Amino acid sequence: MTSATMPFPPVDQNTEPIGVVHVGLGPIGRQILAFLGDRKRYRSVGAVDIDPDLVGKDLADVAEAAVSPGQVRVVDTVSGLGSATPGAVAVHCAGSSLEKVAPTFMALLEAGYHTVSTCEELSNPWATQPQLAADLDACARRNGVVLLGTGVNPGYSMDYLPVVLAASQRAVRGVQVHRVQDAGLRRLPLQRKVGAGLTTDEFADRVAQGTIRHVGLPESARIIDRALDLGCTGYEETIDPVIADSAVPLGAGTIEPGRVLGIDQLVVASRDGEPVIRLHLQMAVGLADPRDVVTIDGDPGLESVIRGLHGDSATAAVVVNSLGRVQVARPGLRTVDEIPASPINL
Amino acid sequence: MTSATMPFPPVDQNTEPIGVVHVGLGPIGRQILAFLGDRKRYRSVGAVDIDPDLVGKDLADVAEAAVSPGQVRVVDTVSGLGSATPGAVAVHCAGSSLEKVAPTFMALLEAGYHTVSTCEELSNPWATQPQLAADLDACARRNGVVLLGTGVNPGYSMDYLPVVLAASQRAVRGVQVHRVQDAGLRRLPLQRKVGAGLTTDEFADRVAQGTIRHVGLPESARIIDRALDLGCTGYEETIDPVIADSAVPLGAGTIEPGRVLGIDQLVVASRDGEPVIRLHLQMAVGLADPRDVVTIDGDPGLESVIRGLHGDSATAAVVVNSLGRVQVARPGLRTVDEIPASPINL
Fold first, then answer.
1. Residue limits of the 2,4-diaminopentanoate dehydrogenase C-terminal domain (chains A, B) (predicted)?
2. Residues linked to residue A264 through DSSP beta bridges, in sequence order
């Protein structure tokens, strides 16, 4: 009925490319390299891996389409990278145990790199490893850079999104997240990680040994609890198998009835015995209708249903889309809810 | 199958309350006062309104449950507020025209207040009023405070949320948002604003006069364009009536068939003629299934459906939940995508 046309001004951009160093060239590290190949704002300027088969190689021969030949040679330690140019970011994809990788973070921060890592325990170490968190925070601040642990989960679907959605509420009493992922669509290591094909006894043994457990749900619960000041006083975590009730095809083979398809993991955080935060992750072969449902129990309350948050791809994307965001965040050890939403697609 | 319990550490909070001054005591301003009454972190310390019936009154007699009697008396100009204590925030709900309210913003910023406003044109004035935006930005930076325009739309459903959702994508080619609101559930001024009950001729006249138009869609499109670097070169905005095809009850009366139920407003931003961003707002009496749908055309793409983003309540909530967030943002004129997601529920 009425119409108007008006030009958009060009986006004001610092045209100097931002240097990225890659620490860890496993599946996720390589996926991030490939994703960065599409982006005009970033340039890969260094790479580190401990694998002797990779050290000394040209990064262009290791990873697809992300860097020109002759630009970057893989080294075996962070000390081989040299100091950061202003704004440079290290992308770290090499381990879930914060205690083991903390010295690497310290070295990267001291060299002046903003550091973004898929280390799940880094997503929110303030409660679990307070001294180490404080040391990393101090080191990042001293060097004027940001240290961030992120990915799709932890880092996005069970912490950042619920906090973002809660901003529309007058008050929040509780938060529920239900994430359903079809592990059949994911990479093989993930299928192994969730126990696909095991007997229930084997599954129980691995849970008891701690080798079957998705890391990050308590970290996410604590991000929600702190952001929304929900006053949680404790949590319980349970890990159960999803069991095949008929034969389920997987790759070239089949998972027989009675065998394990994957994990059903639940964290319930409570305040004085009352459940407040419920994070429910189902990651198994053949699960129908993969989705992320966030339910805010609040005033007026809200339900969000997202389809399309694929695990591996989303982890790499969230990391890549954080590289511009850490540039404009306050220096220090940060959780995902503490960095701005923009700029992301540079 | 396995369980663990571990206490959460108490949330580390600055226990000093943050002072809030209220500029504009209309319906949204009062709703914000009521919402703030539930929050422990904030204390109302000042109020301004030009209405002679309010000036000189005790704020406790004007607004519900937000402040104790004898604490705050309503004054008629910002200069009557005095200087801000550290971290103090002004909540401004008094007008959509940035040009008209800019002197008020300047005065608040100079007095040291972070300023959060529902002024729709403030949500992203960089393209439409670049000189004024630059002046406000410089003033905010000089005083070390943040100036932010927000609300549910613009400020959340059509800009912040799509940017947040895009962070899960390897690449984004386009963004579509469809917001459906039942104006029958909203306050009376909103029903008038969308033209409920008018003839189609009356509606057309008011659109031509510019009195029927939801302000903010181009501002939201520009936030998305800039955050995701989509390179839009122009946009078109159309405003059509939603027309009753049968009698629709409203309050004590009825809207007859053929009369207007509300607006159907569309902004399509394009890059060299190709549509890239599509923001579609339907706000009319009796619309079924109120919802916010965000579709990201990207790699791998995503669809998000939210139910529960009620207009008035969400605007007041988004403003209240921004007060903690501006404290930790970089000083200056900011758009919603530039402030962190936390802390919000203090």
1. 157-341
2. A240, A282
Say what the pLDDT of residue B201 is.
97
Cα B279 from Cα B292, distance rounded (Å): 11
> What are A263's two structure tokens?
């994990």
**Least Cα separation, residue B79 to chain A (angstroms):** 30
**pLDDT tens per residue, range B156-211:** 999 999 999 999 999 999 999 999 999 987 777 788 899 999 999 999 999 999 99
Phi, psi of A179 (to 5 degrees): -110, 120
What kind and span of H or E run contains A164? Answer: helix A160-166
With beta carbons under 8 A apart, name residues in chain A contacting B238: 1-3
The verdict on A1 touching B (C-beta cutoff 8 Å) is yes
Task: In whole angstroms, give the CA distance from residue B230 to residue A228.
Answer: 33
For residue range B283-320, what is the model confidence (pLDDT) as tens digits? Answer: 999 999 999 999 999 999 999 999 999 877 999 999 99
For residue A188, what are its two tokens? 């093989």
- Do B18-151+315-338 and B160-308 come out as alike in CATH topology? no
The whole-number pLDDT of residue B11 equals 45
What's the rounded Cα separation, in Å, for the pair B306 and A303?
Answer: 6
* Residue A138 forms contact with B (CB below 8 Å): no
Q: Is the pLDDT of residue B17 over 90?
A: no
| Cβ of residue A146 closer than 8 Å to a chain B Cβ | no
Domain positions in chain B are: 18-151+315-338, 160-308
Assess B163–A contact: CB distance below 8 Å, yes or no.
Answer: yes
**Greatest pairwise CA separation for chain A in angstroms:** 68
- Which CATH number applies to A160-307: 1.20.1640, 1.10.3470, 3.30.360, 3.30.70? 3.30.360
ipTM: 0.95
In terms of CATH architecture, what is B160-308? 2-Layer Sandwich (3.30)
pLDDT band at A332 (very low <50, low <70, confident <90, very high): very high
**SS3 of chain B:** CCCCCCCCCCCCCCCCCEEEEEECCCHHHHHHHHHHCCCCCEEEEEEECCCCCCCCCEHHHHCCCCCCCCCCEEECCHHHHCCCCCCCEEEECCCCCHHHHHHHHHHHHHCCCEEEECCHHHHCCCCCCHHHHHHHHHHHHHCCCEEEECCCCCCCCCCHHHHHHHCCCCEEEEEEEEEEEEHHHCCHHHHHHCCCCCCHHHHHHHHHHCCCCCCCHHHHHHHHHHHHCCCCCEEEEEEEEEECCCCEEECCEEECCCCEEEEEEEEEEEECCEEEEEEEEEEECCCCCCEEEEEEEEECCEEEEEECCCHHHHHHHHHHCCHHHHHCCCCEEECHHHCECCCCCC
Query: CATH for A18-152+315-338?
Result: 3.40.50.720
In a mutational test of the A interface, the residue from B168, B305, B319 whose CB has the highest number of chain A CBs within 10 Å is B168
